[in-house]
Write a structure and sequence with these properties.
The protein is an alpha+beta fold and about 300 residues long. The protein is built from six helices and 14 strands.
Protein backbone atom coordinates (compact mmCIF):
# COMPACT_ATOMS: atom_id res chain seq x y z
CA UNK A 1 0.00 0.00 0.00
CA UNK A 2 2.70 2.51 0.98
CA UNK A 3 1.94 6.11 1.77
CA UNK A 4 -1.33 7.25 0.21
CA UNK A 5 -1.14 10.65 -1.48
CA UNK A 6 -3.91 12.75 -2.93
CA UNK A 7 -3.41 15.87 -5.05
CA UNK A 8 -3.80 19.28 -3.48
CA UNK A 9 -6.60 21.68 -4.37
CA UNK A 10 -5.40 24.37 -6.80
CA UNK A 11 -7.24 27.66 -7.42
CA UNK A 12 -6.38 30.65 -9.57
CA UNK A 13 -7.96 33.17 -7.16
CA UNK A 14 -10.11 32.90 -4.05
CA UNK A 15 -12.43 35.11 -2.03
CA UNK A 16 -12.17 35.60 1.72
CA UNK A 17 -15.41 33.67 2.24
CA UNK A 18 -14.30 30.72 0.11
CA UNK A 19 -10.88 30.66 1.75
CA UNK A 20 -12.34 30.64 5.26
CA UNK A 21 -15.01 28.02 4.54
CA UNK A 22 -13.00 25.59 2.41
CA UNK A 23 -9.47 25.93 3.79
CA UNK A 24 -8.89 28.05 6.91
CA UNK A 25 -11.72 26.70 9.06
CA UNK A 26 -11.15 23.01 8.16
CA UNK A 27 -7.37 23.60 8.12
CA UNK A 28 -6.87 22.24 4.62
CA UNK A 29 -3.94 23.15 2.34
CA UNK A 30 -4.46 24.84 -1.02
CA UNK A 31 -2.29 26.28 -3.81
CA UNK A 32 -3.26 29.78 -4.96
CA UNK A 33 -1.85 30.55 -8.41
CA UNK A 34 -2.47 34.29 -8.70
CA UNK A 35 -1.92 35.58 -5.17
CA UNK A 36 1.63 36.80 -5.85
CA UNK A 37 1.08 37.92 -9.45
CA UNK A 38 0.53 41.52 -8.30
CA UNK A 39 3.64 41.62 -6.10
CA UNK A 40 6.64 43.58 -7.40
CA UNK A 41 8.66 40.48 -6.40
CA UNK A 42 6.91 38.42 -9.08
CA UNK A 43 8.87 40.26 -11.77
CA UNK A 44 11.87 41.52 -9.78
CA UNK A 45 13.01 38.58 -7.67
CA UNK A 46 15.60 36.61 -9.59
CA UNK A 47 18.88 35.16 -8.37
CA UNK A 48 20.73 37.94 -10.18
CA UNK A 49 18.59 40.66 -8.58
CA UNK A 50 19.11 39.30 -5.07
CA UNK A 51 22.84 38.94 -5.68
CA UNK A 52 23.05 42.56 -6.79
CA UNK A 53 20.92 43.78 -3.86
CA UNK A 54 22.35 41.84 -0.89
CA UNK A 55 25.07 39.60 -2.32
CA UNK A 56 27.84 40.76 0.02
CA UNK A 57 26.38 39.49 3.29
CA UNK A 58 27.52 36.20 4.85
CA UNK A 59 24.86 33.53 5.32
CA UNK A 60 24.68 30.22 7.25
CA UNK A 61 24.16 27.11 5.13
CA UNK A 62 22.56 23.77 5.97
CA UNK A 63 23.11 20.40 4.31
CA UNK A 64 21.50 16.95 4.34
CA UNK A 65 23.86 15.34 6.86
CA UNK A 66 22.37 13.93 10.04
CA UNK A 67 22.30 16.44 12.87
CA UNK A 68 25.08 16.54 15.46
CA UNK A 69 23.60 15.03 18.67
CA UNK A 70 25.11 17.83 20.75
CA UNK A 71 24.10 20.72 18.48
CA UNK A 72 20.89 22.75 18.71
CA UNK A 73 18.30 22.09 16.00
CA UNK A 74 18.98 23.98 12.75
CA UNK A 75 22.68 24.47 13.49
CA UNK A 76 24.41 25.42 10.17
CA UNK A 77 26.96 23.21 8.43
CA UNK A 78 29.02 26.11 7.01
CA UNK A 79 28.87 29.78 5.96
CA UNK A 80 29.33 31.53 2.62
CA UNK A 81 28.94 34.93 1.02
CA UNK A 82 25.35 35.16 -0.22
CA UNK A 83 26.27 36.14 -3.77
CA UNK A 84 28.65 33.19 -4.06
CA UNK A 85 25.94 30.85 -2.83
CA UNK A 86 23.44 32.19 -5.38
CA UNK A 87 26.00 31.59 -8.15
CA UNK A 88 26.42 28.03 -6.85
CA UNK A 89 22.72 27.09 -6.96
CA UNK A 90 22.38 28.78 -10.35
CA UNK A 91 25.20 26.74 -11.86
CA UNK A 92 24.85 23.21 -10.46
CA UNK A 93 23.04 20.89 -8.03
CA UNK A 94 23.98 21.12 -4.35
CA UNK A 95 22.42 19.99 -1.08
CA UNK A 96 23.31 23.28 0.61
CA UNK A 97 20.27 25.32 1.71
CA UNK A 98 19.59 28.63 3.41
CA UNK A 99 17.07 28.31 6.21
CA UNK A 100 15.00 31.12 7.85
CA UNK A 101 16.64 33.99 5.96
CA UNK A 102 15.23 37.39 7.04
CA UNK A 103 14.82 39.64 3.95
CA UNK A 104 13.92 42.72 6.02
CA UNK A 105 17.07 42.49 8.10
CA UNK A 106 19.16 41.93 4.98
CA UNK A 107 17.57 44.81 3.07
CA UNK A 108 14.50 46.70 4.33
CA UNK A 109 13.61 47.73 0.78
CA UNK A 110 12.76 44.10 -0.05
CA UNK A 111 9.71 44.40 2.22
CA UNK A 112 8.08 46.59 -0.41
CA UNK A 113 8.23 43.73 -2.92
CA UNK A 114 5.70 41.40 -1.28
CA UNK A 115 2.23 41.80 0.23
CA UNK A 116 0.70 39.71 3.01
CA UNK A 117 -2.77 38.44 1.93
CA UNK A 118 -4.66 40.28 4.66
CA UNK A 119 -7.73 40.27 2.45
CA UNK A 120 -7.97 36.52 3.24
CA UNK A 121 -7.25 36.49 6.98
CA UNK A 122 -5.74 38.46 9.86
CA UNK A 123 -3.01 37.75 12.37
CA UNK A 124 0.02 38.24 10.10
CA UNK A 125 3.42 38.57 11.73
CA UNK A 126 4.58 41.34 9.38
CA UNK A 127 8.01 41.72 10.99
CA UNK A 128 8.88 38.03 10.64
CA UNK A 129 8.90 36.90 6.99
CA UNK A 130 11.32 34.09 6.21
CA UNK A 131 13.06 33.14 2.97
CA UNK A 132 14.43 29.73 2.02
CA UNK A 133 16.96 28.90 -0.72
CA UNK A 134 18.05 25.56 -2.09
CA UNK A 135 20.13 24.05 -4.85
CA UNK A 136 18.70 21.54 -7.31
CA UNK A 137 18.12 18.27 -5.46
CA UNK A 138 18.38 19.71 -1.95
CA UNK A 139 15.78 18.57 0.58
CA UNK A 140 14.14 20.11 3.63
CA UNK A 141 13.68 17.36 6.22
CA UNK A 142 10.23 16.26 7.36
CA UNK A 143 8.95 18.55 10.14
CA UNK A 144 6.26 20.97 11.21
CA UNK A 145 6.93 24.57 12.23
CA UNK A 146 7.59 25.02 15.92
CA UNK A 147 5.58 28.25 16.23
CA UNK A 148 2.42 26.61 14.80
CA UNK A 149 1.64 29.56 12.54
CA UNK A 150 -0.45 29.38 9.38
CA UNK A 151 1.96 29.77 6.45
CA UNK A 152 1.62 31.27 2.98
CA UNK A 153 4.64 29.87 1.13
CA UNK A 154 5.37 31.51 -2.24
CA UNK A 155 8.00 30.05 -4.58
CA UNK A 156 10.29 31.79 -7.10
CA UNK A 157 12.70 31.01 -9.92
CA UNK A 158 11.94 27.30 -10.41
CA UNK A 159 10.03 24.29 -9.14
CA UNK A 160 9.59 22.66 -5.75
CA UNK A 161 8.10 19.26 -4.82
CA UNK A 162 6.19 19.20 -1.51
CA UNK A 163 4.65 16.42 0.62
CA UNK A 164 2.22 17.39 3.38
CA UNK A 165 0.74 15.49 6.34
CA UNK A 166 -1.85 16.39 8.96
CA UNK A 167 -0.44 16.60 12.48
CA UNK A 168 -2.64 13.69 13.54
CA UNK A 169 -0.15 11.38 11.75
CA UNK A 170 2.81 12.59 13.85
CA UNK A 171 3.46 9.33 15.70
CA UNK A 172 3.23 7.27 12.50
CA UNK A 173 5.76 9.69 10.96
CA UNK A 174 8.31 8.72 13.64
CA UNK A 175 8.17 12.07 15.42
CA UNK A 176 11.14 12.60 17.72
CA UNK A 177 10.21 13.28 21.38
CA UNK A 178 10.47 16.93 22.52
CA UNK A 179 10.87 18.04 18.89
CA UNK A 180 8.85 19.03 15.82
CA UNK A 181 10.71 16.86 13.30
CA UNK A 182 10.85 13.21 12.30
CA UNK A 183 13.69 10.72 12.45
CA UNK A 184 16.27 11.45 9.78
CA UNK A 185 16.84 7.80 8.87
CA UNK A 186 14.26 7.52 6.09
CA UNK A 187 13.32 9.36 2.91
CA UNK A 188 9.62 10.12 3.17
CA UNK A 189 9.41 10.39 -0.64
CA UNK A 190 10.66 6.79 -1.01
CA UNK A 191 10.65 5.09 2.40
CA UNK A 192 11.80 1.59 3.27
CA UNK A 193 8.50 0.22 4.55
CA UNK A 194 10.08 -2.94 5.90
CA UNK A 195 12.35 -0.89 8.16
CA UNK A 196 9.71 1.77 8.91
CA UNK A 197 6.38 -0.11 8.71
CA UNK A 198 4.35 2.56 10.52
CA UNK A 199 4.53 4.72 7.36
CA UNK A 200 2.46 2.13 5.51
CA UNK A 201 -1.05 3.56 5.10
CA UNK A 202 -0.21 7.10 6.21
CA UNK A 203 -2.23 9.67 4.24
CA UNK A 204 -0.59 12.71 2.71
CA UNK A 205 -1.02 15.45 0.13
CA UNK A 206 1.37 16.02 -2.78
CA UNK A 207 1.93 19.22 -4.70
CA UNK A 208 4.38 21.00 -6.99
CA UNK A 209 5.03 24.73 -6.91
CA UNK A 210 6.26 26.84 -9.83
CA UNK A 211 7.31 30.49 -10.03
CA UNK A 212 4.69 32.67 -8.30
CA UNK A 213 2.61 29.83 -6.81
CA UNK A 214 1.55 30.20 -3.17
CA UNK A 215 0.92 27.22 -0.88
CA UNK A 216 -1.29 27.75 2.17
CA UNK A 217 -0.14 25.39 4.94
CA UNK A 218 -2.42 25.39 7.99
CA UNK A 219 -1.02 25.34 11.50
CA UNK A 220 0.77 22.16 12.50
CA UNK A 221 1.04 20.63 9.03
CA UNK A 222 4.09 18.43 8.51
CA UNK A 223 6.01 19.20 5.33
CA UNK A 224 8.89 17.79 3.28
CA UNK A 225 10.26 19.87 0.41
CA UNK A 226 12.62 19.14 -2.47
CA UNK A 227 14.06 21.83 -4.74
CA UNK A 228 13.75 20.62 -8.34
CA UNK A 229 15.71 23.67 -9.51
CA UNK A 230 18.04 26.13 -7.81
CA UNK A 231 15.31 28.39 -6.43
CA UNK A 232 13.86 30.10 -3.37
CA UNK A 233 10.65 30.83 -1.44
CA UNK A 234 9.24 33.29 1.06
CA UNK A 235 6.94 32.32 3.93
CA UNK A 236 4.48 34.81 5.40
CA UNK A 237 3.15 33.70 8.77
CA UNK A 238 -0.15 34.35 10.57
CA UNK A 239 -1.36 33.38 14.05
CA UNK A 240 -4.25 31.00 14.46
CA UNK A 241 -7.13 32.49 16.47
CA UNK A 242 -7.13 29.57 18.90
CA UNK A 243 -5.70 30.39 22.34
CA UNK A 244 -4.81 26.72 22.74
CA UNK A 245 -2.67 26.82 19.58
CA UNK A 246 -0.96 30.02 20.76
CA UNK A 247 -0.27 28.47 24.16
CA UNK A 248 1.19 25.35 22.56
CA UNK A 249 3.36 27.55 20.34
CA UNK A 250 4.74 29.38 23.37
CA UNK A 251 5.51 26.09 25.12
CA UNK A 252 7.27 24.78 21.99
CA UNK A 253 9.40 27.91 21.65
CA UNK A 254 10.42 28.14 25.28
CA UNK A 255 10.03 25.08 27.50
CA UNK A 256 10.30 22.30 24.90
CA UNK A 257 13.12 23.82 22.82
CA UNK A 258 15.22 24.77 25.86
CA UNK A 259 14.75 21.38 27.50
CA UNK A 260 15.70 19.56 24.30
CA UNK A 261 18.84 21.67 23.79
CA UNK A 262 19.85 21.18 27.43
CA UNK A 263 19.49 17.40 27.19
CA UNK A 264 21.55 17.37 23.98
CA UNK A 265 24.36 19.27 25.66
CA UNK A 266 24.32 17.04 28.74
CA UNK A 267 23.88 13.61 27.23
CA UNK A 268 24.62 14.01 23.49
CA UNK A 269 24.41 10.66 21.67
CA UNK A 270 22.80 8.83 24.59
CA UNK A 271 19.90 11.26 24.53
CA UNK A 272 19.50 11.10 20.74
CA UNK A 273 19.60 7.30 20.80
CA UNK A 274 16.83 7.32 23.41
CA UNK A 275 14.77 9.74 21.30
CA UNK A 276 15.06 7.50 18.25
CA UNK A 277 14.05 4.40 20.22
CA UNK A 278 11.01 6.23 21.59
CA UNK A 279 10.07 7.48 18.12
CA UNK A 280 10.15 3.92 16.79
CA UNK A 281 8.21 2.54 19.76
CA UNK A 282 5.55 5.23 19.49
CA UNK A 283 5.18 4.66 15.75
CA UNK A 284 4.87 0.90 16.11
CA UNK A 285 2.29 1.27 18.89
CA UNK A 286 0.21 3.68 16.79
CA UNK A 287 0.36 1.24 13.88
CA UNK A 288 -0.67 -1.67 16.10
CA UNK A 289 -3.66 0.29 17.41
CA UNK A 290 -4.49 1.57 13.90
CA UNK A 291 -4.19 5.18 14.98
CA UNK A 292 -5.24 7.55 13.64
CA UNK A 293 -8.16 6.25 11.64
CA UNK A 294 -7.82 6.67 7.90
CA UNK A 295 -10.09 9.22 6.27
CA UNK A 296 -9.66 8.45 2.57
Amino acid sequence: MGIIYKPIDVVEDITKEEFYTKYLKPRKPVVIRNMARNWPAYQKWTLDYLKETIGDIEVPLHDSSKADPAAPINAPATKMRFGKYLDLIKEKPTDLRIFLFDPIKASPELQRDFIAPKELMGGFLDKYPNMFFGGKGSVTFLHYDIDLAHIFHTHFNGRKHILLFENKWKKRLYKMPFATYAMEDFDISNPDLEKFPALNGVEGIECYLEHGDTLFMPTGYWHWMKYLDGSFSISLRAWDRSLAVKARSLINLTVQRNFDNLMKRLFKKRYMDWKEKRAIANAEYALKKNRPKRSL
